[in-house]
Write a structure and sequence with these properties.
It is elongated, with a radius of gyration of 20 Å. It is an alpha+beta fold and 286 residues long. Helix 8 packs across helix 9. It has nine helices and 15 strands. A hairpin with a 2-residue loop joins strand 8 and strand 9. Strands 1, 2, 3, 4, 5, 6, 13, 14 and 15 form a nine-stranded mixed sheet that branches. It has a four-stranded antiparallel sheet with strand order 7-10-11-12, sandwiched between helices. It folds into two domains: 96 residues, Gcn5-related N-acetyltransferase (GNAT) (Aminopeptidase), CATH 3.40.630.30; 153 residues, Aminopeptidase (3-Layer(aba) Sandwich), CATH 3.40.630. It starts with a strand and ends with a strand. Helices cover 32% and strands 33% of the residues.
């Protein structure tokens, strides 16, 4: 049996050792490790005094819990400890009396899918996963005009457009950001607007939300794009310029629940991932 406890700075070496065996030696956990230890919700699993796994629970908004980063040390796999870690994490999440408990995984991650199904999670939404290697972006484009930051006093039309979009409906009100999917509430909308992440056309007939990639913040993501045809042409040109200015490593990624957003991402130059067809978001029935 393993024991799960909150991570502390003294656990960093063991956590990094677990993460070093993920995805051929690359893992996003080291990028967030210090912040996660400081904010709480990062758990380490121990067996006989050794760290054999980790997992993370994050409160995205009040009562909205997100589970991610479940890892088992390479030498400890095949013992059922991944399922045990997930069970203990879920138990702790339920005891917090949240509004929702969600997580995501790709369709090719069959091990995680089995554990998720065993725990009783239900599919909530699914997204197509698209990407574009940043080296394929052109920075020699002409300036895109007619797009500006959205200000709060002019925000009601933009929020109505978002809520009435196919993407909002098909995603069941979730906003993606690099494998994390948040409830797309008006409070979140206002926060993103205040942070300078929401753009509109001058006539407010189109809305674009650009968020930094969680793993490579210099790479923007098109989290949302919608509007009439004229507005969309302006927003697509503007998005291309923003993507072309990316200085981070790796690929530009995007997630689309509906066909309309997917077509816009493809017009920007993105294409379906070569191996991943869908990213599933699962919800635990409370």
């Amino acid at each position: 049996m393993i024991k799960l406890h909150s991570a502390s700075p003294k656990d960093k070496e063991g956590i990094l050792a677990v993460a070093s065996a993920t995805w051929e030696g690359w893992d996003y956990v080291p990028l967030f490790l210090d912040a996660w230890i400081a904010e709480g919700g990062l758990y380490v699993a121990e067996h006989s005094g050794q760290i054999v796994g980790i997992t993370k629970t994050t409160e995205l908004s009040e009562g909205e819990l997100w589970l991610e980063a479940i890892r088992v040390a390479e030498e400890s796999r095949g013992k059922g400890w991944g399922r045990e870690i997930a069970q203990k994490q879920l138990k702790l999440a339920i005891e917090a009396d949240p509004r929702s408990i969600r997580l995501s995984t790709a369709d090719i991650n069959t091990t995680s899918l089995k554990i998720i199904g065993h725990l009783g999670f239900e599919e909530y939404a699914r997204f197509r996963y698209l990407q574009l290697p940043s080296k394929h972006l052109s920075s020699s484009m002409e300036s895109a005009e007619g797009v500006q930051l959205l200000h709060r006093e002019d925000s009601s039309k933009a929020w109505d457009l978002i809520r009435g979009s196919e993407e909002f409906r098909v995603s069941k009100g979730l906003l993606p950001q690099t494998w994390k999917f948040c409830e797309w509430t008006e409070d979140l909308f206002v926060r993103l607007m205040n942070e300078g992440s929401v753009y509109v056309t001058e006539d407010h007939n189109g809305v674009l939300v650009l968020l930094p990639n969680r793993y490579a913040p210099a790479n923007p993501e098109v989290a949302f794009i919608e509007g009439d045809e004229t507005a969309l042409e302006k927003l697509e040109a503007f998005a291309k310029l923003k993507l072309a200015s990316a200085s981070g490593e790796g690929s530009i990624v995007g997630f689309s629940a509906g066909k309309r957003k997917r077509s816009r991402l493809e017009r920007i130059g993105m294409r379906p991932h070569e191996r991943i067809n869908y990213v599933y978001v699962f919800d635990y029935p409370l």
